[in-house]
């Protein structure tokens, strides 16, 4: 018998030639924060990586655009000439060479967008979706939950109804007056009104937003509120406590009748390890646009699975952050939800092909090369001051 040696296909490098930043402003969504953001405030930015192979990749960063640009200026010398087809290696190179600037801040957030863009380039170069590159697709579609701000009880129907009519069948309400008025009756009335508005057949999730400035409540409030939320079949209680209160999170998870979720303010896998090891969460929520990108997010998701903790990415971001979350949802065996900001221009009006719910309120996960979405230059020009530079290699 004769054998023919297999000759592997050689994939030419795609060397990075330019790093571009597009701060988004003009229609920034409200956050429900104590010091509320305005439409012209920049809280999100896009990253573009251009290569000598003629392939460009795009990522998203949940950070003020001026900070992203400053971080990109620092990181660019480490990126130029690098092969964008090696996202894990290059992202780690960026982390390793910037630790002294402060791990977890704007540098780490900006690396997130760069990493997402590199995975996008790798997918385009290989002809594979990012989900397939991450090991394979467990699903072709996923349930989006519409992320909305809380309001006074008499306003909750108006907040929720348009999105219910648009086809969403899962909702998360958060921030606003909830937990901030010292009135347990008001908190219950908000949840009661929200449950009535979404109906008994929809999922309802609750986010207290205790990472807000000067959060006024502690463990006892969280325990009492968790018991109240159980009366309304709430799927999880998110950010019920300040983000550094690990001991209180552990205690709350042990007694709460509803699952406890959190982790959106943590960055890099090292920060998540003690929360997972010690059982602080039922559901862990790393944010791909802050945590270090897809390379880091998948490590955290797999680590959580080893501890029996569900992974659902935090996704208060843009169309490109949502695209990354969708690819991760395809690749992770038990990720059944993705976050979708209700009514955000930066989600709905940035790409050449907008996201669309199917008849069952599900989102298809693109099985196209890379992230499966592309920026629309004309749409982006509405929200960033120098769109031509963003697209220039």
TrEMBL record:
Q: Which Pfam families match?
A: MR_MLE_C, MR_MLE_N
GO molecular-function terms, A-Z: lyase activity
Organism of provenance: Cereibacter sphaeroides (strain ATCC 17023 / DSM 158 / JCM 6121 / CCUG 31486 / LMG 2827 / NBRC 12203 / NCIMB 8253 / ATH 2.4.1.) (Rhodobacter sphaeroides)
Q: Which SUPFAM superfamilies match?
A: Enolase C-terminal domain-like, Enolase N-terminal domain-like
- Which named protein is this? Mandelate racemase/muconate lactonizing enzyme
Q: Which InterPro entries match?
A: DgoD-like (IPR034593), Enolase-like_C_sf (IPR036849), Enolase-like_N (IPR029017), Enolase_C-like (IPR029065), Mandelate_racemase_C (IPR013342), Mandelate_racemase_N_dom (IPR013341)
The alphabetical list of record keywords is:
Lyase, Plasmid
Domain of life, per UniProt, equals Bacteria
Q: Where is the Mandelate racemase/muconate lactonizing enzyme C-terminal domain?
A: 153-259
């Amino acid at each position: 018998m004769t054998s023919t040696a297999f000759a592997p296909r050689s994939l030419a490098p795609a060397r990075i030639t330019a790093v571009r930043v597009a701060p988004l402003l003009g229609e920034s969504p409200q956050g429900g924060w104590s010091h509320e953001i305005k439409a012209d405030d920049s809280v999100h930015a896009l990253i573009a990586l251009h290569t000598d192979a003629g392939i460009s990749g795009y990522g998203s960063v949940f950070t003020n655009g001026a900070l992203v640009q400053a971080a990109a200026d620092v990181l660019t010398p480490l990126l130029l000439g690098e092969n964008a087809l090696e996202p894990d290696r290059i992202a780690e190179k960026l982390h390793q060479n910037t630790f002294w600037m402060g791990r977890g801040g704007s540098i780490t957030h900006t690396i997130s967008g760069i990493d997402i863009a590199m995975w996008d380039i790798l997918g385009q170069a290989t002809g594979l979706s990012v989900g397939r590159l991450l090991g394979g697709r467990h699903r072709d579609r996923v349930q989006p939950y519409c992320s909305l701000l809380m309001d006074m009880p008499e306003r909750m129907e108006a907040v929720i109804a348009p999105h219910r009519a648009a086809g969403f069948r899962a909702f998360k309400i958060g921030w606003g007056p909830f937990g901030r008025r010292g009135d347990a009756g008001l908190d219950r009335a908000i949840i009661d009104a929200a449950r009535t508005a979404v109906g008994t057949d929809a999922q309802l999730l609750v986010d207290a937003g205790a990472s807000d400035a000067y959060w006024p409540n502690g463990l006892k409030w969280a325990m009492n509120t968790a018991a109240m939320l159980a009366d309304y079949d709430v799927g999880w209680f998110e950010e019920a406590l300040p983000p550094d209160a690990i001991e209180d999170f552990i205690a709350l998870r042990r007694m709460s009748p509803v699952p406890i979720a959190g982790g959106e303010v943590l960055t890099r896998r090292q920060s998540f390890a003690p929360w997972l090891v010690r059982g602080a969460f039922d559901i862990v929520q790393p944010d791909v646009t802050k945590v270090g990108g897809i390379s880091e997010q998948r490590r955290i998701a797999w680590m959580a699975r080893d501890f029996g903790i569900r992974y659902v990415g935090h996704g208060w971001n843009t169309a490109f952050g949502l695209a990354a979350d969708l690819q991760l949802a395809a690749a992770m065996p038990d990720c059944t939800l993705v976050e979708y900001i209700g009514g955000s221009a930066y989600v709905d009006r940035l790409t050449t092909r907008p996201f669309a719910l199917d008849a069952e309120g599900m989102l298809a996960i693109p099985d196209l090369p890379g992230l499966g979405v592309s920026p629309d230059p004309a749409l982006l020009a509405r929200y960033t001051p120098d769109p031509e530079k963003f697209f220039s290699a």
